[in-house]
Amino acid sequence: MITVAVVGYALGMALVAAAVATAGDSNALGMLLLFGPRWILVFPWLLLIPLSLVARRWVTAAAIVGSLVTLFQVSGFEIPSLISLRSAMGSGGGAGKTLRIVTYNTDRSATLAQRIDTDLLAWDADVIVMQDCAPEVATAMQAADRRYQVFRESEFCVATRLAVRSPVQLHGTRKEGRAVGFSVEWQGATVRIGTVHLPSPRTALFAARQGSGDLLEESVQQRAEASGAIAAWMRESHRGPIVVAGDFNLPVESRALRHDWMWLRNAISEAGWGFGHTMFAGRHRVRIDHVLVSSDFTVRGARVLSGFPSEHQPVVADLELTASGGASK
Predict the structure, then answer these.
(1) 89 contacts: CB under 8 Å, gap ≥ 6
(2) What are the pLDDT tens digits along the chain (329 aa)?
């Protein structure tokens, strides 16, 4: 009985991993799979692994392999790359050597304005990009710390304490997905910054929970088209170092994210620990807010914060410009 349970669950998780890799968010079934609570699938191994110890050795081996597949390939658990670990254990480089980016979908929270002075001090960020940002948050940021230049364009709030080299430009619409782009000066290089907010799958997922899956395919197509259009717009301005951060509404395993943004690297995937969930709605916890960087950067650290007044939580990434990136003007 133990052998059947362990082997059966291991094979089931292998099939789920294959579905995540091949069909992730490319159709209705893949969308439900990626936005579902995949992290829960790890917990049966807490019982199955101890039980496997009383069975044959190959059953224990199958349990260990199955648990690793579930943890990393199904649930999306991340550990830092060796390059990021070596960088994090380095000397640190001193003040001004690391570019800190914060991205946060505030869900138009007005409460954030009442605490933003404390948050700005805690973040100590060079660039902050917010999606679904209420006007009072932008006003509060400007009043809280005069070192920041604060811009509000459509739903986006941008705060930077670096010299701005190009104005904030808006691209797209709410239905199609929106983005803004601008450039800052950092360590002698011009760094392009972009922030995005792709269409939300919320309506389609809610309808599916009520028994109607009619909107799922439409949501998949809408987000894929928005991702492709905005990625192309960002890439047109890609001359040297670039960081694109925001609410992509695409899990990291999404086919659209992998296809459209493959020219950039995911900061959490390189330097994050854990599941990296950025959006919390009950048991449904997904990683849809990302910081993507060009090869001009080494990711020294990346993490998701907690305790903020939104279903989304901020993502922080510390970036170090490589020698070749610093030479880009």
Answers:
(1) none
(2) 999 999 999 999 999 999 999 988 999 999 999 999 999 999 999 999 999 999 999 999 999 999 999 999 999 999 997 766 776 666 444 445 899 999 999 999 989 999 999 999 999 999 999 999 999 999 999 999 999 999 999 999 999 999 999 989 999 988 889 999 999 999 999 999 999 999 999 999 999 988 899 999 999 999 999 999 999 999 987 789 999 999 999 999 999 999 999 999 999 999 999 999 999 987 789 999 999 999 999 999 999 999 999 999 999 999 999 866 665 54
Count of alpha carbons within 13 angstroms of residue 30, beta-carbon side: 23
- pTM greater than 0.85 (yes/no): yes
Task: Verify that 91 and 181 share a domain, yes or no.
Answer: yes
The residue assigned the tokens 């006003």 is 139
Rounded CA-CA distance 317/174 in Å is: 26
Alpha carbon of 272 to those of 80, 83, 227, 309, 317: distances in Å?
Answer: 5, 12, 23, 22, 9
- Does residue 138 sit in the same domain as residue 53? no
Q: Which residues have CB under 8 Å from 220's CB, separation 6+?
A: 25, 26, 27, 28, 30, 31
Residues 169, 260 within the same domain: yes
